[in-house]
Write a structure and sequence with these properties.
Length: about 300
């Protein structure tokens, strides 16, 4: 997957303001308006680039299932909480992403009825955001018809989320499209770290336990570049209290990954390197904080 670093949004703003200060008169005002329009379009394109580079909502849940990890219902966000997210569009977008990852997790473990129930919750949030067609009856019916085919379910869900993102961006609601992706990514990471944290410590010796958990730990470690992309995306948006909090937490998460430097050690063929859940304690702590703030 190719990762592209974005130009910080404040550079675009500076460029636009520089043009404003240096010009006057109606012609100049028209030029300024065009510059601001171009800056807005540039911002939308930058966010779209990052969204394209982030993993789809089903990727992390399906990677989790492929590691052989046992299913854990307690890690999902309760679908009955959906009504509490209606009053704020930013919360609705974040939790639409949360539920999308939960649906991916449920469907990857063949939890048929639960996945359909969560789809209904996702539809309510999408309708609340004004997203047309992404989670309509046709999508629900196709999901039910393909419930035995995990690949088909992943494609249906990913298309529904991509459709939601496209609608939000086209309606100049770029922030909400970015929050949707943020929610789905955080939930995938929360489920991964939660599975490791909740794995029993009294069944196997520590070295055997670490060996069992290594594939799941690698799924988490592989998300470092995606954390970078997510932070870049959030930093392109005009900050409010929610986005400032997300940026702060993502910066902490980025630092936790950097401190491990495990992938570099693996590349250098460190034969004495042993992955342990202790390596992921700081990452787990930050992810839990982020997820709690999103779903509360």
């Amino acid at each position: 997957m190719k990762f592209i670093r974005l130009i910080p949004a404040f550079l675009i703003t500076v460029a636009a303001l520089t043009g404003l200060w240096s010009c006057g008169g109606s012609k100049e005002n028209q030029n300024n308006a065009e510059e601001f329009d171009q800056a807005e379009q540039s911002l939308k394109e930058q966010v779209e680039t990052v969204i394209g580079n982030l993993p789809p909502p089903t990727e992390i849940p399906y990677l989790i299932q492929m590691t052989g990890a046992e299913y854990n219902q307690s890690l999902l966000n309760d679908r009955k909480k959906v009504d509490k997210y209606f009053s704020r569009n930013d919360k609705a977008a974040l939790n639409l992403g949360i539920y999308a990852a939960d649906i991916g997790y449920l469907s990857s473990y063949d939890k048929t009825q639960e996945a359909i129930d969560y789809l209904d919750a996702a539809k309510k949030l999408a309708d609340n955001l004004g997203v047309i067609g992404s989670f309509n009856m046709d999508v629900l019916q196709r999901f039910e018809q393909n419930i035995a085919n995990k690949d088909s379910l992943a494609n249906i869900l990913n298309r529904a989320i991509l459709s939601s993102e496209k609608y939000l961006k086209d309606e100049s609601r770029t922030k909400l499209a970015a929050l949707l992706l943020t929610g789905s990514f955080v939930e995938g990471l929360y489920i991964s770290t939660g599975l490791i944290k909740s794995y029993p410590k009294d069944i196997l010796p520590e070295d055997s336990r670490n060996l069992v958990l290594t594939p799941l730990m690698r799924v988490i470690l592989q998300q470092e570049l995606s954390v970078d992309e997510l932070l870049n995306m959030i930093n392109t948006l005009e900050k409010d209290e929610l986005l400032t909090s997300l940026a702060t937490d993502l910066t902490s998460l980025q630092a936790s990954y950097r401190a491990l430097n495990i992938e570099e050690q693996i590349k250098n063929n460190r034969s004495d390197l042993v992955l342990s859940d202790k390596n992921l304690e700081e990452i787990t702590k930050v992810v839990e904080k982020m997820r709690t703030s999103i779903v509360e």
